[in-house]
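Why run this: before we spend reagent on co-expression, it is cheaper to look at a predicted model of the complex and decide which construct boundaries make sense. The entries below are exactly what would go into the expression plan.
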Amino acid sequence: MALPKTPALTVDCVICDAQGRVLLIRRKNEPFKGAFALPGGFVDLGETVEAGCRREVREETGLEVRDLRLIGVYSDPARDPRGHTVSAAFLAKLPAAANPTAGDDAASAEWVGDWRAHPLAFDHAQILEDAEKILHAGAGA
Amino acid sequence: MALPKTPALTVDCVICDAQGRVLLIRRKNEPFKGAFALPGGFVDLGETVEAGCRREVREETGLEVRDLRLIGVYSDPARDPRGHTVSAAFLAKLPAAANPTAGDDAASAEWVGDWRAHPLAFDHAQILEDAEKILHAGAGA
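The model came back. Tokens follow.
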């Protein structure tokens, strides 16, 4: 039985250190070539979204993330100029000493203190805003 | 630019009334024909997951759900015998007076008091367990 055609499934990962910096990549390819973005990419057939998220982070930053917390599902049909993609976005924490090494689709990978100072690819600024709400809710509880 | 092939995207909806009953359908088609299931289905290209969830609930139960709360993303490659599907599952509330009318893929639609007494399609028992955790966390807060 063939499955119907649906939006393409992606994952994105907000990785924070204890100082509130986030790990961003610079995109090597279009769309948004050269812009900062969250590590992430397309989910492979046969892998869970969590496994896809860990794989993409590993490929683009060389780092391993463990506990993933779901931030949300981002599905605006206009969010990706290539076509309709839907992203499951996760939150992870790493120590500030974690030293990224850019790979795969990432031209660079670095800890960024003030992500609001930069234009971000896709709807990644919205994902980061939502991640901060979760972090702040946790800190205030 | 063609997008890569990824798992097919679906939505499922846990709809509760104030008495803790849940709105389930009986599946008209395989897989799990005749079993109870959450209302849901495949996301169309060009619609958000929230719009897809409301549409599937409308088609299968005749009811309109408004506020949707994300329960989780379910992506085990073995969760659907047709192939790899990934479901964004949402929680909604309706008054007990809401009277469902089965349609589309649903042979029936009814409020069920003890869903644990029935075998459920796919991983819908797990989704219901997770929804109850959210509901109980909210009640205890």
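Helices of chain A lie at 49-61, 124-140. The mean pLDDT of chain A is 93. Bring this page to Monday's planning discussion.
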